[in-house]
Amino acid sequence: MEHWHRSPLALFVSEEGGLAKRSSNANGDRPGGKPTINDVARLSGVSKKTVSRVINNSPLLNDETRERILKVIAELGYVPNPQARALALRRNFLIGLIHDNPNAQMVLNVQHGILEALQDTDFALVIRPVDRTSPHMLDDIRNFLERQRLFGVVILPPISENDQLARLCDELGCRYARMGSAELDDPDHMVASNDRQAVREAVAHLVEHGHRTIGIVQGPHGFRSATERRLGFEDALKTAKIKLPRSLMAEGNYTFESGIAAANRLLDLAPPPTAIFASNDEMAAGVVHAARQRGLSVPEDLSIIGFDDTSIAAHMWPPLTTVRWPIISMARSAALKLVGDVAHPDREVDEPSMFLSTLVRRSSVAAPRQ
Amino acid sequence: MEHWHRSPLALFVSEEGGLAKRSSNANGDRPGGKPTINDVARLSGVSKKTVSRVINNSPLLNDETRERILKVIAELGYVPNPQARALALRRNFLIGLIHDNPNAQMVLNVQHGILEALQDTDFALVIRPVDRTSPHMLDDIRNFLERQRLFGVVILPPISENDQLARLCDELGCRYARMGSAELDDPDHMVASNDRQAVREAVAHLVEHGHRTIGIVQGPHGFRSATERRLGFEDALKTAKIKLPRSLMAEGNYTFESGIAAANRLLDLAPPPTAIFASNDEMAAGVVHAARQRGLSVPEDLSIIGFDDTSIAAHMWPPLTTVRWPIISMARSAALKLVGDVAHPDREVDEPSMFLSTLVRRSSVAAPRQ
DNA sequence: TACGTATTGGAAACCGGTGTCATTGACAAT
DNA sequence: ATTGTCAATGACACCGGTTTCCAATACGTA
Lengths: 370, 370
Known about the structure:
The structure is a homodimer. Chain A is of the alpha/beta class. Helix content of chain A is about 50%, strand content about 15%. Chain A has helices spanning about 1-15, 15-30, 35-45, 50-55, 65-75, 80-90, 105-120, 135-150, 165-170, 195-210, 225-240, 255-265, 280-295, 310-315, 325-345, and strands at about 95-100, 125-130, 150-155, 175-180, 190-195, 215-220, 250, 275-280, 305-310, 320-325, 355, 360. In chain A, helix 7 links the parallel strand 1 (about 95-100) and strand 2 (about 125-130). The structure holds a DNA duplex.
């Protein structure tokens, strides 16, 4: 009955292709007017719901119908409106990146890794650098999350070490995945690397070359990565039964300039260290710079190891021996933790939560002079 | 009539504040459930429209009513749903950044500049790196723009020089602002710098130091920035009445490695140049690297000038004399061109379209040896 | 007193999708 | 012949805002 009633209606619409088209054109007249699900439904002679089923790959749908609708969709160049979907589904398709990391290469690598994970999904990446030193930082982030209603955020170190931020995300119903140098959270919310072990091996590498007076340029106090890397440094020296006076431990703030300053403090010692481990590549580059200013050659007079393996490490002179932090893979994994069950409901595998850093041997390490 | 039917209904709803509250609480029960405009309206005893007027700062509204509603909004912690607004307003609040620039520092600076412009607006920044070498690049971008329906995009060089991309944006009804080294488009769609003039001055700086055999490491063929900078180079030599043999013009592709290769070609000449201008800092760093490998010291044996003034320029050894490209200001201006009339309807000033680059003198230029 | 008129508030439609539930017809089981 | 089941599809309300249009009220004026 209904069917008989509708069939001519469908025909009517079909016959009135001109009308339907006119409507579509009226849409096209104002610039940016796109065809909607209603246009597709009218032209295919089905209901919106059925078109919606096509869009969402619903299995309960006749193949023939699906084909017909797909054809109309292609002809019209129809693309579903993401804002409308977001409204109806009560979630949007935006992943945020929250960071306060000064290292451009690292940030870009993370963006790259996240976008790899978001490839072929409906998700886009919105970025949000924050100012760690601002007293309103948490309020700013809250504001941002409330306004944008992101599906989830990836949080880069060092801000990822801030537990208040994680709690804020929970409170606002925003998924999050933290990246860091140690397990600060449960595996669902954390992608970590084993910095401590990696540094242990890197410093052991220096010991193997015969170094006994080894300095460290630590990261800034209060940073988990700084702590982990220092612990790895101490582990290695303890294993090698080498005493570690406080004077050989200088502190920087992860910038090139702070690396120069810290190196100068270490190289002023008597005797000066024959090797220095720096907690990141930027500071390692600063150490190289300081050494050169003093007329020391690297690695002959001073061996240096960095951490991160950002592009500066390969491009500086001499190319820097450093610890490669698998940042892109970690970022990809973090993003997949966020969107995995939505974007790839078929995939069963859990994303790994722990990644291994490895030593990259270049030319900044040699045996000490006699 | 209808009215009389409805008026008690409105009263009913209003009287049932308890019910409204329960509904609001029911909302709060499922995590992430936020209060909506309806909750605000019910609790304030007004209609949605009135609340909407408050949100949008409509002037036709009693001050007392406004205050009352604002109080409820504050109590509830209400934040308008951006997806719902986007749907109703037929535009969203996303600005895209399309780039294929390999320089991390530059990309981050641009992101920074754009975010400065988006500060205190409802807009967020979504990023989209593209692969210039991919044959589907334009299709990928089309796909991206169609799916996300961005309000507008900022396009970074070198991809900003692609006119097809600009036309694509037009076709899809997406605003765009291109950044570049020359005026490739009308001022509404373009933020340009005067690379040619800046390079002219930079090379004149070399001439003033007494250099007569000056080489150039150009950017890759087909890049407008490369052309502009080469033209500036030629201008300067012509002004100084210096002949420029083809052999002194090497080509790179803006990477560190290509800078090394190009420098080696130039330094193999007899006589070799005493100064080299490189079209960007990365290649300039490569030139320094190549010189050092040959036992030449910089700037004593070879003076070098770069372009961009990215962080590598200040951090390398010796600190690089280079042309500062005002990238952050340009990016900010580009973003303001996109959102200005929406986000700051009161501001009347037009964003500038032309920015001046300036020479930054550091330590990589000296007089040539005798 | 009656009548414009400006100000303020509300009902209902709409933006473009999705969820819930009902309906239909075909076919199998009783 | 009747009933039950199931696949396929549709009707309709809903998501949370904005807009259109009209009603109610207050006010000044003829």
